[in-house]
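Morning!

As promised:
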Amino acid sequence: MSENHLLSPNSAPHSDVEDIKRRSDYLRGSLAETLEDRISGSIPEDDNRLMKFHGSYMQDDRDLRNERSKQKLEPAYQFMVRVRAAGGVVTPEQWLMMDDIAQKFANGTIRLTTRQSFQLHGVIKWNMKQVIQEVNEALLSTLAACGDVNRNVMCNPNPYESEVHQEVYEWAKKISNHLDPRTRAYHEIWLDEEKVVDSRDGVEQEPIYGPVYLPRKFKIGIAVPPANDVDVFSQDLGFIAIHEEGRLLGFNVAVGGGMGMTHGDPKTYPQVARVIGFATPEQVLDVAEKTVMIQRDYGDRAVRKHARFKYTIDDRGIEWFVHELEQRLGWELEQARPYHFEHNGDRYGWVKGSDDNWHFTLFIQNGRVKDEDNYLLKSGLREIAKVHTGDFRLTPNQNLLIGNVTSEKKPEIEQIIQAYGLTDGAAYSALRRNSMACVSLPTCGLAMAEAERYLPTLLDEIELILDEAGLRDEEIVIRMTGCPNGCARPALAEISFIGKAVGKYNMYLGGGFSGNRLNKLYRENIGEKEILNELRPILNRYAKEREEGEHFGDFVIRAGYVKEVKSGLDFHE
Amino acid sequence: MVLKVTDSPFSQEQVELLNRLLPTLSEVQKVWLSGYLAALHKVEAPMAAGFQATLAANGPVISKEVTVLFGSQSGNSQKLAKVLTGKLQEHGFHVTLSSMSDFKTNALKKVENLLVVVSTHGDGEPPDNALSFHEFLHSKRAPQLEGLRFSVLALGDTSYELFCQTGKEFDKRLEELGGKRLTPRVDCDVDYDEQASEWMNQVLASLSETTATQVAAASAFVGGAVIGSGSLTEYSRSNPFQAVVLENLNLNGRGSDKETRHLEISLEGCNLEYEPGDCLGIYPKNHPGLVRELIDAMGWKPEEPVPINKNGEELPLEEALSSHFEITLLTKPLLEQAVKLSSGNGLQELLAEGREQELRDYVRNRDLLDLVEDYDLKGVPAKDFVSVLRKLPPRLYSISSSLKSYPDEVHLTIRNVHYQAHGRDRYGVCSSYIADRLETGDTLPVFVQHNPNFKLPANPDIPLIMIGPGTGVAPFRAFLGEREELGATGKTWLFFGDQHFSTDFLYQLEWQRWLKQGVLTHMDVAFSRDTSEKVYVQHRMLEKSKELYQWLQAGAHVYVCGDEKKMAHDVHAALVTVLQKEGGLDSEEAVAYLKRMQQEKRYQRDVY
């Protein structure tokens, strides 16, 4: 192991989060006690830092914050609980459990995330233990759904290439299991397992992470070309499945992608992962483990906003990383194999797999599963789950795939889809079908502007322009986030909006349609009126002047609206 | 500087003497005299605390006290405030560092050196933890800050139109309130390090300079200590003070079944004083809907003058019924009088001997409108009718503030009573008046009702056990405020309960602050509707019986406030159980123990 393990690459002292982790005794902290405190629905900040590793963090209803403060009440503290499943695959029974938990303990809705996880919002402190227990009873977990560890491993969910997909999914699960934290804290705090006095030192308790875990979160995703729905270039570590006639040959390895940045700090930027070579399926666990350990040893532990893997690589150079990796592996990667991506969106509606099972991809606006007066989405899915014999797959675009429906079962599922009017999005504009927004207000503590609650109405307005221009069925990827941390992967969209203040967004253009290129800042700090005024002439011109098959993101570069961004290092230029 | 009767606590004769004497004094003589009076005051009978504080503050002591306040959204301002604090401490300053939201606004008057580090959030908005302080400073309640020296470091982002807006507003407002700028405000962009440290250096230089020359300034005299008209009128129950309402808000969060008003009332301009445990009397007005319906039911004219007392004073009927007479309570004497108002109205039978229970059932939850509708009283002239009515009595509420924490103010905690009975909405007279019809800026006739049977022990070291579910918690806010201001070291333990944690935790932020500061040692809460089994304060007491017993043995005083019928009884029983279980007493001995405590004034109750 490298000598500088736990040392910062620069001479600055560790960030306070590092101290919290170090003192926490493998993620225990004082959580057990502070969860019991009846005077506040909150937990102290130190424990909240640790809570993230357990798959949850504290939020409050920001709509009520000022009102409650005047009323001399603390903020309406509540917890977001993130439930992960590698590749987003769950059984119908697990779906029903999530539905039930959401109803009993959360705000009655389920949020599907851009990393194929479930999010429950609005869980109060005194229900946290029961929620996590029930999640675990459903054989799902929240451990490491957040925090400075490897997060949910993403994987293309659509098994139209059924055999390859099945194999790839198995590897996603193996990577996920391999990188799970080993601490017993989770079981002690939430599952009432006895506390065992553990005298082993850090390396034995957490052989991969050690006692202070990673400097920052770490994301892994696997794409199966031609679909890049997992946005493989946004991942810290991406694998691109290379397959031939239904056979998985291995994976191209891509490293150093990431979305987050900070407004006004050009030293932070989104970055796309770079392909460094090829590994066979049997080699990927080793590649993942060593990559994580390199980031553990070299990642910046002094400045959290400079701690993601992309900065470790950009600071030292990709050649350094390949060398370091191959040293640790003891073998060399093969040369990367050719691959081709078409799109980073989802394939809606019914698709038949090569094993003759059927898969239905449902359009879910911004991933929010709930019942509304005229659209009983949550109830409809519950009815499907009751009879479904296949599985459910959360897609990386916050949609839901009802997977592995046999030909015999298909009419029954189709009948429920019809009865509840569940939509494959065909009635919507192609823009809306390719839209994503993060959760943002009122629960997200980082949000500066609306996203999930606002994007649908903004799209209503943009659709009027599309109709005028005759672009309703033109697939354009549009994304919105309430802050620059990038949960909806906005830096890869053809059009994106990143919140700066309530009602104000930075507008970016020119991302690649298949998730292959970052976009570029076009206008700063604008509101809805300016957004529409800016978009109208560009869309109209695109309608008239585009070349055969030319995507919007490519057009805006050719037409000179923005410069092409080749690397995150040019993002702010 | 000339003293007047109206802006000082002196009589005309004293003012004349002082005005003759003061101009002849040298600076040294003035300082000597103020020190002499302050020392003299310590051995003599206590005077008003505010006056004492003013004198002490003007003593010849060089202040190196600096208050650093920050308003921070993302943590940058907080970080800079910490750095600044470190620098100041290195230079020997005593620094109080606080977020604006944790800072007690009533302490602002006493601050001499104030350094503000604040960011601007979104489109020119203050950060969340600066909102309340920002609002306070821009409200009418902001104090004059003539003695204040200040400087502002503003953080912002030039890509926003309203760059550093919040910092600019604080800077401007502090000056308007009379503050003097130590150094000019500095506005920082996203990359703030350099400008911030420059500002810190300037502030340090300026502070070091001024503390050295402060002695000369110390002689600025007592002036301004008593603002407004120091009228000598004695206000009382019979002569209530028309107090201005400063704040009237609902303490219960959205979704609560309850509505509890927090009322802040100004006592400025009157000489009313109170101690923790005292009550405030309010003369309310009857519900206008009820008044109107009664007048309509009887076919009276609202403007008709009616006599309101035996001296022949008159008021228009509508006004008399709203603010002078009680119309919501039926009593046997009232019904007996009403019988005589007209013949054959049927009331006679209800009042007949042997029908007492029926009468009790009838008067419960009924009012005058029910009476005139249920019995044939139509045709009785208004002036005759009102002659049998009782004068509207004032309502008494336990005061929920300490005068020491909020000089010139009194706070109340009032639950709005509203229910349905006999097919009609019924409103608590005073609570609905306050909750539904009284606005900030309105006046309210009030007086102080002293309550010698609910008083803090004179010795501030004695531990307190306070049990106050619901609005019963009101006086304990006053107790803790008092102990905070006194710097008392005695331990304190509060038991509170209500229906729901999330919406009904009255004054939650204040208890949390006191717990953090140690003013409140323990707090136990019981929220009855959050769990399948109803949990009340007495259950929490029993859970902690061992510790409670230790406190009792250590001489703690026990205070109970709130509902008499159920709560006070259950709490008493819980105390008996604690004494039996932990002290090995039998039930008789336990009861006797509590009786003895009551006699020694160690067990006091304000129950209703």
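Confidence is low (pLDDT under 50) at residues 42-62, 213-231 of chain B.

Hope this helps with the figure draft.
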